[in-house]
Amino acid sequence: MNVLAIQQRLTALGYNPGPLDGVWGPTTRKAVIAFQTAKKLSQDGVVGPKTLAALNAAATGGGVQATPLTVGEPVWVQEGRRRLGLHESNPALKAFLKSDGKTLGDPERLPWCGDFVETCIRLVLPDEILPANPYFARNWLAVGVKCPEPVVGCIAVFERGPNAGHVGFVVGQDKTYLSILGGNQSNSVSVSRIAKSRALGYRWPKTAGAITVAPMAAATGDITTNEA
Known about the structure:
By secondary structure, the protein is an alpha+beta fold.
């Protein structure tokens, strides 16, 4: 779902999400929690299906003229998309990887796909329990809850040789490939196609609420076979 549209809806309903900037920050999350409290919903700060329906119902009942909010890419994916194209040598990327208070280190010297996923999740889902070592891609197989199949925004973990791995977010698929928004893909934040046959599992953040099935785009991006 569109973060700016959520912020605009909250503002129209009398809740303060902070600047209308399309960024899912602490103030926007607090506004969602305040709305959930008023509507006697689970106060998780996540705009899941029930909160989305309540936001639409509140607008209609309150006379707010607005296009209905719809399910789309989760906020952690939108957080990652804002960094698309950043190369591992870019100071802006290095600053982003440090912005959650933790970092693996220099992305020019170390594999940083797990660092990218960790930062996206921590910034928008601060209560999510993450791996003790989130920089080892296969550790993400124990995060959240299992997705029986890939859905938009789920965390996908891939094998990369007998012991190594890769991790990113699903944003599209076709019969053979998944489109993955991730870091350390061609040394940058990008959307790449990775073979489904390499997938070890799919996970959904527990604090994001029920697994949300949004429309899945077709697979796009260059095909990658080794994200070293």
